[in-house]
Amino acid sequence: MLGTASMKGSGFMRWTVHGERQIYSNPWVNLWLVDVQQPDGRRWEHHVVRMRHLAVAAVVDDQKRVLMMWRHRFITDAWGWELPMGLIEPGETPVQAAAREVEEETGWRVEAMKPLVYAQPANGITDSEHHVFRADGATYTGPPTELNESDRIEWIALSEIRGMIDRREIVSSGSLVGLLYLLLDEATKSAD
């Protein structure tokens, strides 16, 4: 097993950035060409997608169920279960965004959230960050105000999540990271 010092590396494999230029921009995604030099001396322009960061909420109730949404993603033309999530707005903290998204997308309000896990889902091509939070419990406030987000909203038993992942009913990176961490937490609690 690698120790922390070993994981930091010697710095010999660090790529050098000589400059960058933006080639496309809009409020959601920006495409850049970055002039990089690899450790072997090869220098070339690498495409980098810069994106606004994402807040994800794993809301768990006292029956060990997680709040999830059944939704269609047009890009992959696929249906799947997802945790509530959305882009972090300017001036908003990741935890504020996560709480806002839960209520807008599901109609449930959380009172307190704590950091669950941080991830960079595709850091070889994008700078996207996923901030995943956990909330224990929520209060129903009414129907969701985001009407185009999901077909169904359900509380799903944590014990069913592994099978759903195996059947590819859950494929969203933000959801997978949060749910797998929840399952790891539950396994750790059971072992204690």
TrEMBL record:
Keywords: Hydrolase. InterPro entries: Nudix_hydrolase, NUDIX_hydrolase-like_dom_sf, NUDIX_hydrolase_CS, NUDIX_hydrolase_dom. It holds the Pfam family NUDIX. GO terms for molecular function: hydrolase activity. The keyword Magnesium does not apply. Its cofactor is Mg(2+). SUPFAM superfamilies: Nudix (SSF55811). Belongs to the Nudix hydrolase family. This is 8-oxo-dGTP pyrophosphatase MutT (NUDIX family). It comes from Streptomyces iranensis.
